Each structure stands twice: as structure tokens, then as C-alpha cells.
Amino acid sequence: MDLVGDVLSGSRLALARLLTQIENESQAGLEALDKLFKHTGKAHLIGVTGAPGTGKSSLVNQLARHYRKDAPGQSPPRVAIVAVDPSSPFTGGAILGDRIRMRELSGDPGVFIRSMASRGALGGLAHTTAGVVQAFDAAGFDVIFIETVGAGQAEVDIARLAHTTLVVEAPGLGDDIQAIKAGILEIADILVINKADRPGVESTEQALKGMLQLAHPAPRIFHHHYQPMEINKPPVDKPEQEMWLPPIQRTVAVEGIGVSELIQAISNHQVYLDRTGEREHRDQIRLETELVHHLRSELMARWQTASAPGQYQQVLQQVVSRRISPHQAAETLLSGGEAA
Amino acid sequence: MDLVGDVLSGSRLALARLLTQIENESQAGLEALDKLFKHTGKAHLIGVTGAPGTGKSSLVNQLARHYRKDAPGQSPPRVAIVAVDPSSPFTGGAILGDRIRMRELSGDPGVFIRSMASRGALGGLAHTTAGVVQAFDAAGFDVIFIETVGAGQAEVDIARLAHTTLVVEAPGLGDDIQAIKAGILEIADILVINKADRPGVESTEQALKGMLQLAHPAPRIFHHHYQPMEINKPPVDKPEQEMWLPPIQRTVAVEGIGVSELIQAISNHQVYLDRTGEREHRDQIRLETELVHHLRSELMARWQTASAPGQYQQVLQQVVSRRISPHQAAETLLSGGEAA
Asked: Residue B320's closest chain A neighbor by CA?
């Protein structure tokens, strides 16, 4: 069976099979991605992250529906949703979310939803997510959402695989969340206050604005990156389209309020990415991350093949008994591996 | 200056300097850890994780104070707190937390607090945390808390570096949190419901009990690991001390309520770890993770030294222009690197 050909010609079954191969990190999946890779690079990747309780999934569902319905006078974009749940090794939450999604988006052949759980492999999840996104891209999906549940570093790293990253907040989620926001604000291209009909929305927006000024000291970044020679000029002189200030969009996803405006903001960001070369820059960073991941894996695999059997366990036991440090053990193994 | 000797003889200044070297992943830090490693393996490592808003930091502070004050008729244990904030690249939250901690625990030479932020390096944070913990262990700290802010996979992976992992919950944190609990419950040795004076504590406890039964099907795990031949015997026949059922402890950390009981539960878990060999097992997993990290880094460093200059950028450009996939690029580079 020609899985690659079937994926390229639009078979959902073939795509689903390929995604499973990618998730299992099988050789077949790797080879299929090699063949599909030249067909990638067309989709717009939208990362969506934020703390639990902000209603990210509902928001992504609504965005998907709007993309499918609002396309004026043209065929609507095909939409994929990759829902990544790094904190759920046994996918309970993801499965529940899937059912709700299936009900809301089912029957639309232009939408494909894939949930991914971690199975305990941390670095691996960002890697397999990148593979899944490439498969959707090659299969002709125009808009690909990468939604992460949770707001830890792993989730942030996965969401920033995207061209446009939405950071979702909601009013009244408690004090501690302030601390987390500071970190993820840095990666936000667009800030969304979902559940904006709740009390406290004004103070949430004020807080976000305040933190945005800390995280994005816009005039300085602007000067530094684009006009290093004019560093003393006041920021008011700069043409505003040369820099991106993350807008704050209010939505009530479950009622569809603010979703069209959010799509407009995403579209504005797309235009900005293309005009400034930032899209290429982000692509390059993402692909280099992938390359380094493969390099590391392949180096490790080659070493394992070449190393003397039993030596690894023997050296590990010396570490466990505290005779040599893990670092010294690695040095020992690599000397031995080269000699063997 | 003999940094290693000074650390071993109890100098706080030398320790602080060493911790910075470890965080910067400097060669000096690596060499110092090699020398210190044989002095490790004595401390009890306590991981503390949970969603934002559960009051983890206050709880850890209270635990530290109790360990320092409650030691009956002996010299109190020395306590280190490693507060890891993977979601805060610029440490704003961590610094704020530090100030509060300094006020509460300052002046006690038996307590050492170190905050670590991610600086964007994901896998690296778990690694440098392991190094920092080893330094505290070698320096003679008896109890080392590894506290992570946030509840994503990275945080969970760091917290499980410990011998005893506390998962902290609090009543009334919203619906979405249920989904996250499912994943991190699996790593909990002790469940803590902090802020237990809040309304909703009963339903939180009931929910946790229900999920514990899903996450820890105790009789089956018990049979499988320890008595494979008696798989058909009813669980009631088993001596209870052979297995560990995560207890649920209620605390109100800011008032010190339930903290002594929590310390007793930690002590019970220590006894269990020692009796069953589980402590050695966990040490071995942790040290093997470290070893593999060093192996990977060293393989990559050796390859970089051996590879032809300029080739990497050239191959990366072929990936960016979609001529070859990241996987094919890695293969190309490794063939070239070996030929060179």
C-alpha cells in the first residue's frame, strides 16, 4: 500500500494510520515523513496555550468552525487540531475532550482532530508533535492548531512550534497564575481573554497590559532588531507596521463572541510574519530543533550499536554504588565504545 | 581555592558559588560534582508539585520549619529547598517568592534556599536541578525539597527526581484541573489537600479518592510486583506493609495545621522505601537518567568537534528550503562527520 500517496491524495484513513506511526516513532513513519517533507511549509500553524480553566479547547473548536464557515467566496480552509496533553500519561482527559469535540465538529470532512498524550516521554512529545504537524501540513491542511493543555514549560515549548501563538487567559483564576503568566507572555503573539463575560475581566486586561509592557519593551526591541543605528530616536517616529505588539482580544468562546475578531488578529499576524521575514525565521528555528533532535537520537543509536554488550549495565552499577559520577560514567562508556 | 573542600566542610559561600557553576553548566561545576558525587546518597529527596494556587511554597516553608524545630532530642536535620520554576524565564515570580521565604526562614543556618528558573532550556532544567540536588546532598543537607511551580510534564518530571513525591491540591480550583490531576496522581506518594479550611474540601477529597482507585489499582499492582505466584488470592490476605497506598493529608499550611502529620506520612514513606528496596530502585532510575543525559551531550559535543565546519549550516539550509527532511539531514551530517 502506498501510504504516502494516499495521504497526499486526501485519504483520512491513510492519514490516521500515518499519525499513529509517527506517534509510535516507527521506522515506517520516519520514512513516510522523509517523503512527505517536500510538501510541507504551506500551512499556518497556530499554537494555543494557557492555564487550565481558561477554556482553550472550546476556543479552538470555535475558531475551527469559524474558519470553516466564514471564508468569503472561496473554498474554506481545511483545519487540523492537534491537542497535546503532556500531563496525561493515560489520556483520560484527552479522550473526554475528544468526545465533546467530535460532537461539535463531527461530519465536517475538512476538519481533522488528533489528541496526543505524553506516555511519559518528555522531549519526545514535542518531537512527535512536530511530526504530526508536518503530516497534516503535507496532507494539505491549511490551518493547524497546536493546542496544549497546561501551562508548564513543556506545553509552552510545544505551543511555540507555531507561527502564531495565542496565550489564553480568563478572569478570576486565582493569584498564583500571575506568576505563570509572566513566563508565557513572552511567547504570546496574541493574548486572548476568554470567558470575558465573567466579572474581573477589566482587571485581568489591566494586569495583562502591565505585564505586556514588562515582557515586550516594544521600542527597545524594535530599535535593537530593525534599526540599530537609530537607537536614540523616540519610538513615536517609527512606522508602526514594522513591529508587532501583541493585541489583547476578548472572547466568550462558548457563545462565539469575539471569535471573528480573533481570526482577524491572527490574519494580521500572518501578514506581519510574511512582510518582515519572521515567518521564515520561525520556520528555521523549528526545523533546526527537529534536526538537532534527530542528530542526538541517531548519535545515541549508533553508539548503542557500537558499544560492548554488558558494559553499560556494569558502568551504571558503578554509578549506583557512588564509585563514579554519571558524568564520569559517560566518559568511560564513550572511551570504551570507541575502542570496541 | 578548594571549592569542593569548602563545600564539604560546610561553607555556605562555597556552596552558593558551586550552585551557580552547576546552573551555568560550566566545566568547573561538572568537575566539582565528579569529586563530590561519592558523598551523595544520604539525603531524603522530597518532590513537591501541583497546580498553581495550591499554596505549595507556603507548605514547603512550613515543612522546613517543622523539620528544623520538631526533631526530638537530637540535632535537627539540615534542610535545602530547590524551587524550580520552569515557566518563568526571567525569574520574576521566583524572586518574589524568595523574598517571602527569606523573611520566614531567614537567620537559620540549617536552611538553604535556591530558586531556579528555566532560561528557556527545557531538558536542561531537570538536569541542572539534579546537579543542584547532588551538591546539597554532598554538602550534608539531610532533607532536600524539590518544589516545582506549575503542573505540566516538565514539572512532574522534575518532582519525580525525588524519593517521596507530594502532589498538592486545594479545594475549589476549577473544573479543568480534574484533567491534570489524573496525570500527576500517578506519581504521588502522598496527596496533600492544602487550604483544607476552604469550602469544598470534602468533595475534593472524595474526587481524589476516586481517582486514586483508578490510578493505583492497589491489589493488582501488589500481586504483579511482589507476589506473582499468588495472583488469585484476595487482596485482604496480603500484609499491608508490603504495598504503599498514597495517603491523603489535609493541611492549612499558613496556620501550620496538619504539617506534623504530613511529616509523619513522609517518614512512613521513607520506612517503606527502605524496607522494600524501592529507594534503591528510584535512585537507580534517577542516576541512569543522568547518565543518559551526559552520554547524549557528550556524543553531540564529540560529533561537533569532529564535523566539517560550515557543513551544518549548509545542510540546515537544505532543510529550510524543503529539499531534505530533518531526519535525512541528520543522516547526511552523520555520514559526513564520520568521513571527515
From this structure: A284
Which residues in chain A touch residue B302, judged by CB atoms under 8 angstroms apart? 334
Q: Using one digit for the tens of pLDDT, what is the confidence trace for A175-227?
A: 445 545 556 677 889 999 999 999 989 988 988 888 777 665 544 333 323 33
Chain B residue numbers touching A286 (CB-CB < 8 A): none
Closest to B22 (Cα-Cα) out of B82, B77, B87: B82
Count Cβ atoms below 10 Å from residue B317 Cβ, excluding itself: 12
Residue B29 touches partner A, C-beta closer than 8 Å: no
Residue A194 CB: number of other CB atoms within 10 A?
29
Chain A positions touching B150 (Cβ under 8 A) are: 150-153, 180
Q: What predicted TM-score, i.e. pTM, was given to this entire model?
A: 0.76
- For CA atoms B172, B173, B176, B179, give the dihedral sign: negative
H helix runs in chain B, sequence order: 3-8, 12-23, 27-36, 56-70, 92-105, 122-138, 153-159, 177-185, 201-215, 218-226, 259-276, 278-306, 311-320, 326-339
DSSP one-letter string for B68-134: HHH-TTSPPPPEEEEEEETT-TT-HHHHHHHHHHHHHHTT-TTEEEEEEE-TT-HHHHHHHHHHHHH
